[in-house]
Specification:
Shape: rod-shaped
Number of strands: 9
Strand content: 15-25%
CATH topology of one domain: Tetrahydropterin Synthase, Chain A
Helix content: 55-70%
Oligomer: single chain
Low-confidence stretches: none
Length: about 290
Amino acid sequence: MSKQGLILALLAIAMLLIVLGVSPVFIVDITQTAIVVQLGKPVRNITTPGLYFKMPFIQDVTYFDKRLLDYDSSPQEVITQDKKTLFIDNFAKWRIVDPLKVFQNFQTQRGALRRLDDIIYSELRVELGRHNLPDIVSKTRSEIMAIVTQRANEKAAVYGLEIQDVRIKRADLPEQNEKAVFARMQAERERQAKQYRAEGAEEAQKIRSEAEKDREILLATAYKEAEQIRGEGDAKAFKTYASAYRQDPKFFEFTRSMEAYKKTFSHNSTMVLTPDSEFLKYLKQR
C-alpha cells in the first residue's frame, strides 16, 4: 500500500470514528482536570488544559471540575444538647484537590458530592449536639461552624477533597415547636406588659398622691395667708372705727345706724318693732 493510500485509510478510519461518536482526541478545559481510564483503571491524570489523544474503544475520559464549588444541602434534622429539634439548612464551599483519589474512591464527581454530604451532616449533627439552642442560633454560631469546617475538611482530605467553609443558612424549629415557642414568647410578653402596667399605675398613684399633698399644702398656706390678711384688715378697720368713734361718737353712731337702715330696708321686708325701739331712734326724730 502506497503512502497516499495509507493516509487516506487513516482519514477514513478517523471519519468513521467521528461518525460513530468515538473520537481519538479530547479537550481538557482550563476549569477541568481529566482522568484517562483504560479498561476501568486510571492510566493518566491530566491537570493542564489542552488537546490530548486517547485510544478509541479502549480508553475513556472522566472529567472533574477544579474550581471552587458550591454545595447546598436540603434541610436535615439535628437535636441540640438541650433536646431541641432543629431543621438545619447548610451550604459549603469545596474543591477537588486530588482527582485521582476522587476517581479511585467515587469514580465520578457526583459520587464525591454524595460522600461530602454525609461528612458535613455527620459533623454538624455531632457538634450541634454539644450546644444549646441559643448558642446555635446566635451566641457561638461562628465558632461552631469553624469547628465543623475543620473536622469535615480533615475527613474529606482522605478522599482528595478540600472543604473551605461550612455555613448554616437557616435553622428552623419544627412546626409544633414553633407553636410552643411562640406561646412561651407571648406569655412572657404579656407578663412583661402586666408588670409595666402595674409599675405605671403605681407610679401614677405616687404622682397623684404627691400632687394632692402639694394641693392641700397650697390651700392650707393660702387659707392661712388669707385669714392673716383678713385679720389684719379687720384690725385696721376696727382701729379706724375706734378712732372715728373717739373723735365724734354721736356722728359715728348716726352713720352706723344709717348703714343698718340701708341694709334692712333695701328689700321688701316686714319688721315688727315697738314704737320705743332703740333701732328706730333716728327715724322718730324731726
